[in-house]
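Below is a filled-in request sheet from our internal design queue. Each sheet records the structural input a requester submitted and the sequence that came back. We keep these sheets so that new team members can see what a complete request looks like end to end.

REQUESTER: design group, bay 2
PRIORITY: normal
MODE: inverse folding
CHAIN LENGTH: 225
BACKBONE (tokenized):
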């Protein structure tokens, strides 16, 4: 149990690969040395995501913006990783910080896929369904923590993989815009590369929701024995 005056320690943190921890070490040290608050890092991810959404929005007329959109998606992920690391390193982790760690992520998913939806590069309906299910995947992941078991990050379409999938689709579209005939539909069908990307993300989101619920239920059953 934490004693009064002891630093707050989050119950659950997203697992971060050792390689990424090493890469982020210098950034974390710089943030702590400069006194940059972890909440500022969390909120700045919304700025990066809004920039990414804007790039996707105008990419039909300016295809090179897809490159910037892809880059800003990874900046978003980088900031999402750093905020928790900075909070722990600086001793500024807090319950309010946990909210600001999660809420910007949900805003980021929505603004990115809303920009994609109105880009003219895909079906708006599919893109908005991706935004909805992305929020739902994270919402289900929090259930475990809310009821006192574990926060779930499992599934094939967690936040980082949604961004990776979107960026693969963006590169395919960019290739077609620069070197193809401009008809973005795949194999003469009705769906574009981004549409198929969204279909893959949706299927992955359904799997992620299912596996998270299964793991949470299993943990509850173990706890009740």
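RETURNED SEQUENCE:
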């Amino acid at each position: 149990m934490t004693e009064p005056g002891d630093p707050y320690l989050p119950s659950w943190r997203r697992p971060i690969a050792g390689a990424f921890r090493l890469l982020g070490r210098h950034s974390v040290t710089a943030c702590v040395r400069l006194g940059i608050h972890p909440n500022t890092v969390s909120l700045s991810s919304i700025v990066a995501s809004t920039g990414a959404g804007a790039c996707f929005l105008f990419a039909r007329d300016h295809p090179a913006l897809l490159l910037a959109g892809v880059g800003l998606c990874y900046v978003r992920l980088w900031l999402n990783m750093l905020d928790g690391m900075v909070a722990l390193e600086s001793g500024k982790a807090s319950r309010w910080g946990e909210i600001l760690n999660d809420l910007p992520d949900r805003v980021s998913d929505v603004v990115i896929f809303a920009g994609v939806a109105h880009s003219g590069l895909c079906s708006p309906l599919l893109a908005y369904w991706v935004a909805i299910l992305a929020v739902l995947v994270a919402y289900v992941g929090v259930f475990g923590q809310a009821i006192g078991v574990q926060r779930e990050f499992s599934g094939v379409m967690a936040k980082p993989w949604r961004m990776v999938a979107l960026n693969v689709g963006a590169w395919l579209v960019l290739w077609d815009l620069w070197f193809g005939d401009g008809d973005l539909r795949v194999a003469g069908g009705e769906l574009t590369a981004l549409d198929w990307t969204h279909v893959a993300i949706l299927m992955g989101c359904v799997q992620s929701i299912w596996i998270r619920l299964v793991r949470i239920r299993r943990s509850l059953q173990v706890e009740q024995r």
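SHEET NOTES:
- Residues 56 and 116 are 5 Å apart (CA to CA).
- Confidence is low (pLDDT under 50) at residues 1-5.
FILED BY: M.R.
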